[in-house]
Specification:
12% strand; Emycin_Estase; Erythromycin esterase family protein
C-alpha cells in the first residue's frame, strides 16, 4: 500500500505538469523556419541502404485488397517518401512541414525495436525536423540517470571513441547513430541540438494466458535524457555544476538501468544526501543494498530476482523509498538552500525514478499473479511523460522536441487487453498536458520480419532477439488499410486527423512486434508512417 500511495502521489505531480503546460485553443499553422544548417553526416562512404519499403528477399508483398471508403480517404491524405537513406536529400519530406504545424513535441514511433528501416526513417525525419523546422531537442528511449554521461559526450566531452565505453553493457536500441550525428552537428551549430533520452524498460514475463502472451509484445527497453539550463555533468560529485548551455545535451527520462537496477538513480541521490541531509543516508544505503540483491541488465533479469525477495524485504524497500521521497519533498526549501536548486531538482527526479521502478516490479508481479489492479502498470509511462515535461520546463522558450519511442508509448488512448485496462501511455499524458502541441506519428510495416524478444534469464538482458516473419496483415489492421489503399509497397506517410469520423470501419489494430495491439488507430495516432517491409538488424542474437 505504501508503494501505491507513492505512485498516486507522483501522478498528482504529473497533473501539475498538465496545468502548467496546457495551451488551450492551439491551432496548427504552417511554420516556415529555413536556413538551419544541415546535420552533417560522417565523412567517408556509407553502407548502401535497402530500397524504400523492401525487406529480406524471402518476403512477399500481400495481394491487392478491395478498396473501402476508409482506404479511399487514406489514399487521399497520404504522401510517398521516395528515400530511405538518412543522408538522402530531404525534399520528399517537405509536406511534413504542414502536417506538424506548430507542434512543440513530434513523437516518432515504431512497432518493434531493432528494425533497420525504422531506424533509418526516424534518423531521416530527425534531420528534416532539425534542418528545416528548427527542432533543438531529441528525446530518446534511454534511462534518466544513465543519460548523464551520454549528454556530456554529445556536448563534446571525451573522445569520439569514448562513446563505445559509455554504451558498453546497454541494450542497443539505436541510440548510437543519432548521438554521433548530434555531436557532429553541435561542433559548429549556431543553435545546437540537445539530446534527451526516453528509454523503454523490458519488463514483461512469459505468461500462460493469452493476455500475458500479448502483453509480452509490449517489451520495450531503457531510455535517456538530460536538460539545457540546469543539469550538471555526470561526474559532478554533488549534482550542482551547470553545463555549457551553448552545447548539445542529452536528457534521460526513463526509470534507471532499463528497469533492471536502482543503483544508477540511488547512488547519486545518496551522494546528494551526504551534503544536504546526512542523517538520512543510512536509510538510503539500506534501500540500495536491498536493490542490489536483484539488480540485472534489464527488468527482464531483475524482476524474477525481485520476486524471490521475501515479502518483508519487498515491503521494506518500497516503504524506505516512499519515506525518502516524501522527506525530499517536505524539506525542499532546506535541501535547495544547502545543495542548490539544480542539484535538488535532479536528485528528486532520480529518486522518483527509483520509486517508479520499484512500483513497476510490484505491479507486474501482481499482474502475472492475477491480482494486479487495472492500469497499475501506468506509473512508468507517467514517469516518462513527466520527465519530458520536466526537461521542457528547464529548456529555452520555444524549444521543440523530437521524441523517439515505441508506438505503444506514443499513442494517445489507453491500452487494454481483452477489455481490461493495462495502462495509460505516455502519449495520453502528453496530449493532456500539451494539447495540439503534441503530435504522435506511428510507424509500422506491411510485411517483412519483426524482432520478437523471447525471455531467456541466461541472456545478458534477460531476452534474446528472434527475427520472425510477419504474416499478411490481419483484416481490420492499419497495415491492411495501407495495402488496400494501394500503399503496401514503398513508404507512405498519412495524416489521420482528417479521417476521424469520416469513414465507417476505421482500423482497430496495429502491429505490435509479431502480434497486434487492438486500439482505435485513427484516434490513437495523429499520423501513420508505413513502410512496405521491415528487416531485423543482424548480429543481435542474445545481445
Amino acid at each position: 500500500m505504501v508503494g501505491l500511495a507513492a505512485g498516486a502521489d507522483h501522478r498528482a505531480g504529473a497533473h501539475d505538469h498538465v496545468r502548467r503546460h496546457r495551451r488551450p485553443g492551439t491551432r496548427r499553422t504552417r511554420r516556415t523556419r529555413r536556413g538551419h544548417r544541415p546535420l552533417n553526416h560522417a565523412p567517408g562512404p556509407r553502407p548502401a541502404s535497402p530500397p524504400t519499403g523492401t525487406a529480406e528477399t524471402s518476403h512477399r508483398m500481400p495481394g491487392p485488397a478491395r478498396p473501402t471508403p476508409f482506404t479511399d480517404l487514406l489514399r487521399q491524405h497520404a504522401i510517398e517518401l521516395t528515400e530511405l537513406d538518412p543522408e538522402a536529400p530531404l525534399e520528399d519530406l517537405e509536406p511534413l512541414r504542414d502536417l506538424i504545424g506548430d507542434a512543440r513535441v513530434v513523437a516518432l514511433g515504431e512497432n518493434s525495436h531493432f528494425i533497420d528501416e525504422f531506424a533509418a526513417l526516424r534518423e531521416r525525419l530527425l534531420r528534416f525536423l532539425v534542418e528545416r523546422c528548427g527542432f533543438t531537442l531529441l528525446a530518446f528511449e534511454y534511462g534518466f540517470a544513465e543519460a548523464l554521461p551520454l549528454d556530456a559526450w554529445a556536448r563534446g566531452e571525451g573522445s569520439e571513441d569514448s562513446l563505445a565505453g559509455h554504451l558498453a553493457g546497454t541494450i542497443p536500441i539505436g541510440v548510437e547513430a543519432p548521438l554521433r550525428r548530434i555531436r557532429r552537428y553541435n561542433r559548429t551549430a549556431a543553435a545546437p541540438v540537445r539530446f534527451a533520452g526516453l528509454g523503454r524498460v523490458f519488463r514483461i514475463f512469459a505468461g500462460p494466458r493469452r493476455q500475458l502472451r500479448r502483453l509480452a509484445a509490449l517489451s520495450h527497453l531503457a531510455s535517456t535524457t538530460r536538460y539545457e539550463r540546469d543539469p550538471p555533468p555526470c561526474d559532478a560529485p554533488h549534482l550542482t555544476t551547470r553545463p555549457d548551455p551553448r552545447r548539445s545535451e542529452r536528457h534521460g527520462l526513463d526509470v534507471p538501468a532499463a528497469g533492471g537496477s536502482l543503483r544508477p538513480a540511488l547512488a547519486p541521490v545518496i551522494d546528494h544526501l551526504r551534503r544536504v541531509d546526512p542523517e538520512t543516508v543510512p536509510a538510503a544505503e539500506r534501500a540500495l543494498r536491498l536493490a542490489d540483491r536483484f539488480a540485472g541488465g534489464s527488468a527482464a533479469v531483475a524482476a524474477p530476482a525481485w520476486a524471490r525477495l521475501t515479502t518483508a524485504e519487498q515491503d521494506d524497500l518500497t516503504a524506505t523509498l516512499a519515506r525518502l521521497l516524501l522527506r525530499f519533498r517536505a524539506l525542499e526549501p532546506l535541501y535547495a538552500e544547502r545543495g542548490g536548486r539544480p542539484g535538488y531538482d535532479l536528485a528528486l527526479r532520480l529518486l522518483e525514478g527509483a520509486c517508479h521502478a520499484d512500483h513497476g516490479f510490484r505491479a507486474m508481479a501482481g499482474l502475472f499473479a492475477g491480482e494486479g489492479l487495472p492500469g497499475d502498470t501506468s506509473a512508468r509511462d507517467s514517469y516518462l511523460a513527466g520527465s519530458l515535461l520536466w526537461h521542457l520546463e528547464r529548456s529555452a522558450p520555444g524549444t521543440r522536441v523530437v521524441l523517439a519511442a515505441h508506438n505503444a508509448h506514443l499513442q494517445t488512448v489507453p491500452i487494454s487487453f481483452d477489455g481490461r485496462l493495462t495502462g495509460i501511455p505516455m502519449g495520453r499524458c502528453l496530449r493532456d498536458a500539451l494539447g495540439d502541441d503534441y503530435l504522435a506519428i506511428g510507424l509500422t510495416a506491411v510485411t517483412g520480419h519483426t524482432a520478437d524478444m523471447p525471455r531467456d534469464e541466461s541472456a545478458p538482458f534477460g531476452f534474446t532477439v528472434a527475427a520472425t516473419a510477419l504474416a499478411a496483415p490481419e483484416p481490420g489492421s492499419v497495415e491492411a488499410a495501407f495495402a488496400g489503399a494501394g500503399l503496401g509497397s514503398g513508404t507512405h506517410l498519412a495524416d489521420l486527423r482528417p479521417l476521424r469520423g469520416r469513414a465507417a470501419d476505421p482500423p482497430d489494430r496495429i502491429r505490435l512486434q509479431g502480434s497486434y495491439l487492438h486500439t482505435p488507430v485513427v484516434a490513437a495516432y495523429d499520423a501513420m508512417l508505413c513502410t512496405g517491409g521491415s528487416t531485423v538488424t543482424r548480429g543481435l542474437g542474445a545481445l
